[in-house]
Amino acid sequence: MVSYFVLVPYQSGDKISSKKRVNPNQKDADRSIMLFKLFLCFTLIPMIELYLLLQLGSVIGGVQTLLVVVATGFFGAWLARMEGMNTMLKVRSSMQQGHMPAEELIDALIIFAAGVVLITPGLMTDCAGLLLLWPPSRNRFKRFLRKKFQEMTHDGTIDITHY
Questions:
Q1: How many CB atoms lie within 10 A of CB 2?
Q2: DSSP one-letter string for 55-109
Q3: How far apart are alpha carbons 48 and 51 in whole angstroms?
Q4: What is the pLDDT of residue 5?
Q5: What is the structure's pLDDT at 59?
């Protein structure tokens, strides 16, 4: 039997008795926390990247630093393409066998995120992107995502409906 599911965001006004009600003040606090996290990401990460690039440039030189960034970008793009193609072949194979390719689709999402991170110039983001492309670390990240989905389902943040 094939099981399909849909992730539905839980709204505080929904009439779902089995789910925990969300306090409107808590929603505002959650939004403020998320805004603060985004602010930190868009300010701290570029500052750290710039610091690392300047430190590397002072050690190996500016041209070599630029070459390192370009080389990791090309290598990451090549690796993302290879991993993406392998994942798409697995998706096609699963669908031909009549199975829902859930694991493969999660892999595809992580590979896409890795490609987006690799586009950003910098050493830290390149390392993060390459780690997401490397299958052993990608599998650990996948387990982490599954655990987060399970927690979000349990606490009522999302509702999974099976059809």
A1: 7
A2: HHHHHH-HHHHHHHHHHHHHHHHHHHHHHHHHHHHHHHHHHHTT---HHHHHHHH
A3: 5
A4: 47
A5: 95
Q: What is the pLDDT of residue 30?
A: 77
Max distance between CA atoms of the chain, in angstroms, equals: 63
What percent of the residues of the chain are helix, what percent strand, and what percent coil, each to the nearest 5?
A: 75, 5, 20
Name the β-bridge partners of 9.
158
Give the three-state DSSP class for 159: strand
DSSP, res 160: E
CA–CA–CA angle 30, 31, 35 (5° rounding) = 120
Q: Which two tokens stand for residue 147?
A: 């655990």
Asked if 49 and 123 count as a contact pair (C-beta separation under 8 A), the reply is yes
Nearest to 76 by CA among 43, 136, 140, 122: 122
Q: Is the pTM of this model over 0.90?
A: no
φ/ψ of 7, rounded to 5, equals -90, 120
Distance between start and end Cα atoms, the chain: 11
H or E stretch including 147? helix 135-154
| Cα gap 45→48, rounded to integer Å | 5
Return the SS3 of 101: coil
Q: What is the pLDDT of residue 24?
A: 60
Q: At which residue do the structure tokens 């490397």 appear?
A: 134
